[in-house]
Design goal:
Layout: H1 8-120, E1 128-132, E2 135-139
Antiparallel strand pairs: 1-2
């Protein structure tokens, strides 16, 4: 095998080609580095935005939790007030029904007895009895 001899022009041409290849490689490295720096900057901006949004979301969750607790307290207070109102209504209702009933009996009973006596005078075969406690009327 023969060892071909390279001429100086051929060597110079080869070195120029290698130099151009190094320049292109350097240019590509710089472009890759620039893109990497852009990506890194975008990532950092995205990360900062995500952290900001996460903090904002956390604040909103805390506020929502606080509002739920406040609403729960209001419901408990409302429930307590309803129970208290129910007790008052039941007490008043009991007083009203017993007192009202007694008042009506006291007002109506004498008049009813008079009317009943007057109405039954014309019926000699009818006998009636009035019991005051417990109140009841019998006819025979």
């Amino acid at each position: 095998m023969e060892n071909p001899q390279l001429t100086a022009d051929q060597l110079l041409l080869m070195f120029q080609e290698v130099k151009e290849m190094f320049k292109e490689t350097d240019r590509q490295f710089k472009e890759t580095d620039r893109k990497f720096q852009e990506s890194r900057k975008e990532f950092q901006e995205s990360r900062a935005e995500m952290i900001r949004m996460s903090k904002e979301t956390d604040k909103k969750f805390q506020e929502t939790d606080r509002q739920f607790k406040e609403t729960d307290k209001k419901f408990q207070e409302t429930d307590r007030q309803f129970k208290e109102t129910d007790k008052k209504i039941n007490k008043i209702s009991g007083m009203f029904s017993t007192q009202w009933g007694k008042l009506m009996e006291a007002l109506i009973e004498p008049a009813c007895l008079k009317l009943f006596k007057r109405a039954t005078k014309s019926m000699p075969n009818l006998t009636w009895f009035w019991q005051t406690a417990p109140k009841s009327l019998w006819l025979r």
